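Researcher: Good morning. I'm working through a list of sequences from a screen, and I'd like to move beyond sequence-only analysis. For each chain I'm collecting a predicted structure so we can compare shapes side by side. This is the next one on the list. No need for commentary yet; just the structure.
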Amino acid sequence: MPHSAAYRPTPADLAAAEGRTIPDLLAPDLRVLFCGINPGLWSGATGHHFARPGNRFWPALFRSGFTPRLFRPDEQEELLALGLGITNVAARTTAKANELTSQELREGGRALTERVRDNHPRILAVLGLGAYRTAFGRPKTTVGPQSETLGSTRIWVLPNPSGLNAHYTLDALAVEFRKLRETAEFE
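Model: Good morning. Structure tokens for this chain:
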């Protein structure tokens, strides 16, 4: 898997990425562990989280003040020094998150709970309302801080930053990320 910033997967690379997994960006005691729904094909092909052009995760991180500049997906390791990490509810790479089954999301929620308990991030930020609702059996959840915790880890639900999520503009995403950042600074 090439890791260069200039690497653009070919259609064959993207097709071959179906079903792959990519490693978590994880360390003990992070300020915030961001949790995507699952890796997309670009992430599977490149080995980097939120790698697809048009995904608004990296711009939302920057605009909200989590990062000092706009990081590229191939610079994801630099997040650890900022106390930030990335994981996913489901590990399997798909073209679209709606290809995951409810069972995969529930199983992913259980595995995520174990990762959180093992690594103790201060806040788990799940990026995707529907995925959170399914994975954790919380059908009425809304975006923002949640009342439940995973041990001492607070839970925050953010909108999915995928370019396919038309409900939120980049500016609206950055506002939601900023609310989380402002809370995380005082945790």
